[in-house]
Amino acid sequence: MVGRSGHSVSELSLPSFLWDESLIQRYDLSGPRYTSYPTAVEFDQNYQERDMEAAAARSRASDRPLSLYTHLPFCAHLCYYCACNKVITKKRDKAMPYVERLLKEAAIQASLFGPDRPVNQLHWGGGTPTFLPNDVMETLMQGYGELFNLQNHSDRDYSIEIDPREVDQNTLPTLWKLGFNRISLGVQDVNPNVQKAVNRIQPRELTESILQEARRIGFRSINLDLIYGLPHQTPESFAETLEAVIDLSPDRLSVFSYAHLPDRFYPQTRIKTETLPSPQQKLIILHNTINRLLDAGYQYIGMDHFAKPDDSLAVAQRESRLRRNFQGYTTHSECDLVSLGVSAIGQTEDAYFQNNHNLPAWESAIDSGKLAITKGVNLSRDDRIRRWVIGQLICQFRLERQQFSDAWDEEFNNYFADELRQLEPMIKDRLIADNGNALQVQPAGRLLIRAICQVFDAYRKEGASQRFSRII
To answer: Which pTM does this prediction carry?
Structure first.
């Protein structure tokens, strides 16, 4: 029997997740997170500004709607685990000069991409976006409104990352007035010993009060971020954190694995290796966390993400509309991504391009009236085909052969003959099934989806690269 979505009833009744430790041990190598394909390590250092301008012109001709991302790098506090591109400072007067340059950059990009295209999605990330004083945030959003076609319809997705320690009584009302309708709160762990070890003291009551105020104002799809693998965490302590978070009942949860790489990220040298949970303890924490969240009614979206069944992410996944970009899972796959600020990455249908990571170099480029692009890549047709395939698997956990043929005018079995042979061990291990019409990721394969996707990654043919984090 076939359901309304085209899936068989037996497929629809599969459990969403199955833990198999022997398979985890076998397939838990390093690999990309596939927020893009090709991944950022493939970006060309010789990518020219004129390449980005040409990509923007093609995007403008398509008349697709836009997603507008802004990277705000400032943080008042140093969290020892953090690997983000950030500037630690207590000087709030740094905010306005940065915003003034953002608006200069936005003016250049608006002229390239077109000022009339609707901005259906907008996101401020960091760093700590709420480091900006309220009047500076108002200046930035007002400037965007003059340069871009910002929307006020209910289907817009205007989100911001919030550090609860950087919120005053006017912050949330200001954000709501500026048009934001979704927020993500950084929590990481509510255990005081863990918080002290990573230099992020944040009482549970503070997070709870902000979440309640956000709900009262009208924010939806409220997300909380957690990290497992931090110093002094145990399966028991993280279970207590999880219960506290479930009591808060966020619409979405992101549960990230901490990667201890002190040689690459200097702040992590403050974390003592001997205080970290063992790899086996991390597996136990992850296993228990997934089971508990499923028991609490959350849907496993994939990778590190969970959502309530009525949340837009969960709905989009059930309706095969879910996609991934540099902000993670998104319901706005129709948008080209205009990105502003230091290190920000933009995206069109056939190109990626990234700003300079170095703040003074980015400032210098903007001051001279130029774009700050330092690297990028133009996608070949093969890149676009493989991106589509990887996107289907990592977002929908399913790939329909007929849908592929309709989209690309190619026969799947011919185009991916080598990859299908490589999938045979995974089929035998019941990570993925192939009934001739579709590839269906199985419950044991959902946790290992990055390993499955690597089979279709032309840049990973020589095996996994240590430039990426481990899959689990």
So the answer is: 0.92
